[in-house]
Write a structure and sequence with these properties.
The protein is an alpha/beta fold. It contains 14 helices and 22 strands. The protein folds into three domains: about 180 residues, FAD/NAD(P)-binding domain, CATH 3.50.50; about 110 residues, FAD/NAD(P)-binding domain (3-Layer(bba) Sandwich), CATH 3.50.50.60; about 120 residues, FAD/NAD-linked reductase, C-terminal dimerisation domain (Enolase-like, domain 1, 2-Layer Sandwich), CATH 3.30.390.30. It binds flavin-adenine dinucleotide.
């Protein structure tokens, strides 16, 4: 299926998880593949996202556990005061990043992918320009081009960053210092995970959320119980409905807080540091998308479910986009899944991505996870299709394993179609919620009914019985 009239069969722009999976899948299937990367192999996830943040959470989570005298007392354990070395925690994250980045690069090399270090752009149909790091600029041709340029942190107007006292997750990830008092702007999953790290390591946190409740992107019932434990139960002062309208770096950092509704100044805070965690924006500005007539949606590249790039709703031949730059569930595993789906379509094996079955997790202690529809969307679907929506709750406090761990604070909410039993969504807060969600994600992917799922035997005693109980309750409600 190779076409010698092109320099490559496939050129991928961007070597994050989306680009990596696309390039590997293409090369594994015999396509002559090149990948262009302007920064670090592995992209956000490996260098500035999932990987280092989970390393910091693993280390700080242990500090939290060992410092939680009340929890340990419940087991009859009395530990000495915990000591930790900030630099060694940071080193653990850096070393992990280096290992994974190197493994990933070697995997692509072994698969036969040509790695080009430089900045890629479109130069018309099936043509990619690249300014290599050595300054050479050339234009390459490819039968298919996949854009996988990802995203960067969004810094709202009025906020000035200096990378040292006011910074985004790009810098926070290196844990260069531990401010005594840090304000975190935004209570989405990135803000929450860093609040988990900072409070475990003894920092005082003020969390500022512009919307009218903290954790606005989570199911409201799950957010309530999560906020009680992850925010109220810690050294965190959380404010909702306030806007950080101006932030000036320095010592101290000055934050002007305004009421969201009136935009009037309500308070000025002086803190040691600020982490801006207000979302991410697509990296598409310098791609020269005009060369192929693509108009973005606030920078996001429009694609269909086969990952073909759209112009006025119609696919552009041989042009694909995957990952964060498409704005669809901006997660590493979504990007990777999109990458392989795009290549399958290039290979002539038509496939679509099923966003409903893609799970999401926040790796706080304990974790939060979800899959499928939110309750609001499920209600809308029920009204539209004329079925009754079922909703059941399963509690960790009724689970033997959770109780053995003295971790009974947790909740799972399961949403299902009462007519067919089909699982529509699930939302979990509790110990190992990120692992628990996978079972439900698989059920959503197969559009399975709780009638069948309720008969499946779960290991005792495990946290998975929280899911079993939910399935059984739902089946009984049909
Ligand atoms: C702090 C943090 C924690 C996170 N934790 C998780 C998590 O636990 N689980 C999860 O699923 N997701 C997590 N994410 C999200 C995840 O990192 C992203 O969804 C994922 O990296 C998206 O992959 P991507 O391939 O689309 O883009 P990216 O990973 O952003 O990669 C894009 C690559 O393209 C390169 N590039 C851009 N423009 C050009 C160009 N013109 N030419 C050449 N190269 C270019 C960039 O340098 C970059 O390397 C986290 C993100 C952050 C910030």
């Amino acid at each position: 299926m190779s076409d010698a009239s092109f320099d490559f069969d496939v050129i991928v722009i961007g070597a994050g998880y989306g680009g990596f999976d696309a390039a590997k899948h293409a090369a594994d299937h015999g396509l002559r593949t090149a990948i262009i990367e302007s920064r670090d192999m592995g992209g956000t996830c490996v260098n500035r996202g999932c990987v280092p943040s989970k390393a910091l959470l693993a280390a700080s989570g242990r500090v939290r556990e060992l410092a939680d005298a009340e929890h340990l007392k419940g087991f009859g354990i009395h530990a000495a005061p915990v000591r930790f070395e900030r630099q060694k925690i940071a080193d653990h994250a850096n070393q992990l990043v280096a290992t994974i980045r190197s493994n990933l690069t070697k995997t692509l090399e072994r698969a036969g992918v040509t790695i080009i270090r430089g900045k890629g752009r479109l130069e018309g149909a099936q043509r990619v320009g690249v300014r290599e790091i050595n300054g050479v600029d050339r234009v390459l041709s490819a039968r298919d081009v996949i854009i996988a340029t990802g995203s960067d942190p969004f810094v709202p107007p009025g906020i000035e960053t200096d990378g040292r006292t006011v910074f985004t997750s790009d810098e926070a990830i290196s844990l260069e210092w531990l401010p005594r008092w840090i304000a975190i702007i935004g209570s989405g999953y990135i803000g929450l995970e860093f609040a988990d790290v900072y409070t475990a390591l003894g920092c005082e946190v003020t969390m500022i959320e512009a919307l009218d409740r903290v954790l606005p992107t989570f199911d409201p019932d799950i957010a309530k119980i999560a906020a009680r434990n992850l925010i109220d139960g810690r050294d965190i002062d959380a404010r909702a409905g306030v806007l950080a309208r101006k932030i000036t770096p320095g010592a101290p950092v000055r934050i002007e807080l305004a009421a969201m509704a009136t935009k009037e100044l309500v308070e000025t805070l002086e803190v040691d540091a600020v982490l801006v965690a207000t979302g991410r924006i697509p990296t598409s500005k310098e791609l020269n998308l005009e060369a192929v007539g693509v108009a973005t949606n606030r920078g996001f590249i429009p694609v269909d479910d086969q990952l073909r790039v759209l112009v006025d709703g119609a696919p552009v031949p041989h042009l694909w986009a995957v990952g964060d730059v498409t704005g669809k569930m901006m997660l590493a595993h979504t990007a990777a899944a999109q990458g392989t789906v795009a290549v399958d379509n290039i290979l002539g094996h038509p496939r679509q991505i099923d966003y409903r079955s893609i799970p999401a997790a926040t790796f706080t202690h304990p974790e939060i996870s979800s899959v499928g529809l939110s309750e609001v969307d499920a209600k809308a679907l029920a009204a539209q299709e004329g079925f009754e929506l079922g909703s059941v709750r399963s509690y960790f406090k009724a689970n033997s394993k959770a109780l053995a761990e003295l971790e009974g604070d947790g909740l799972m909410k399961l949403l299902f179609n009462k007519a067919t039993g089909e699982v529509l969504g699930a939302h979990i807060y509790g110990l190992h919620a990120a692992d628990l969600i996978q079972e439900i994600a698989n059920a959503v992917a197969r559009r399975q009914s709780v009638r069948q799922l309720a008969t499946e035997v779960h290991t005792h005693p495990t946290l998975s019985e929280v899911v079993e109980v939910a399935y059984k309750q739902a089946a009984a409600a049909l």
